[in-house]
Amino acid sequence: MESDILFVKREFIEKYGNHTKKMQIYFAPGRVNLIGEHTDYNGGFVFPCALNFGTYLVVRLNRTEQIRLATTNFRFEGSVSTNRMEPQGKHWINYPMGVMDQFIKRGFTLSGMDMMFSGTVPNSAGLSSSASIEMVTAFALNELLGFNLELMDLIKLSQKAENEFVGVNCGIMDQFASAMGKKDHAIFINCHTLDYQTIPLNPGDYKIIISNTNKRRGLASSKYNERRSQCESAVKMLSQAGKISFLGELSLQRFQEIQHLINDGIILKRARHVISENQRVLDAIAALQSDDLTRFGQLMNESHNSLRDDYEVTGIELDTLVEEARKVDGVLGSRMTGAGFGGCTVSLVHNNSLNHFTSSVGMAYKNKIGLKPDFYIAEIGDGARRLE
Ligand code: GLA
Predict the structure, then answer these.
(1) pTM of the model
(2) pLDDT digit string (tens) for 192-219?
(3) Which one of 156, 173, 229 would you pick to mutate in the ligand 1 pocket, going by the greatest count of ligand atoms within 8 A of its CB?
């Protein structure tokens, strides 16, 4: 972290010069979701944690009407006026600009400033690099310009930025985890009420290992939006038994009683995933709280199988990583994490098996898929904050 901070500061000064006015540095993390996938936009439960990698932002007011944005990750940079935001192609600056747009829409006045971002989350890995850019921007602007919004407002505003400005209809989990993360804790979120609870994560002799398929997630957003609308269709059909507004309202038992109302096989599978996954989150938290990591691992496995068979968001790369992981002794469970269609898996691996895990899963994946996967030990960190 220290070296990341020095690096982004140096890049900032190189680009914008060293003035007497103090620059500020902020950070917001990426996240890994342990269980509860594609439940957030269905008013369900999720159980993510914030990571130690994320997006740094060095920022300084510049006394002009322009906001200048640059990053150490991509060449593209922008200079935009403080009072109007227009999306620019598919460039990264749409994430911070989307957040600025939301502040403007709420009647806040922005000031000219120079910004240097630097992300340490692997791109397109499904570890919420985009939410971390949004949150770091929202957090920094709110503090620097004295807007005084609550953290919960910043979370909602960042999600809206992604929905409206970037055009991805995401739920609230990623921004929530990036804002509310707590070192060595996971966050149990009720995505309907937005009540949440941080729960200690002490996996003892086990580590949480993230494995990256390194497959680029083409088409992910259109398929994501398609899944959302399939869930909405399920809600309509199930409402014949009495009005419901979202799938997360139904217990597994109630769903089983009324599932015959869904007259489309695909929609039925989508709904079954969401409702069974919701129950798995509750079961997983109960398992964790009684120190039953074996059960937690089984639920991770069941979650992946449901995402593969019922929700159909995995694909050969994620399935291969998971299958190979499960063959290794000392692995309690393995599943895809995030939206799917590529990205990463998360596995619970015994300390003594770590080397064997990376070598055997790495080799088998390379042989089958032709890509080299990356492995990271998840270090669970705090949420969005000012660093100095
Ligand atoms: C993406 C979205 C989240 C959530 C997950 C799937 O990460 O941004 O809101 O829906 O997919 O669980």
Answers:
(1) 0.96
(2) 999 999 999 989 999 999 999 999 766 5
(3) 173
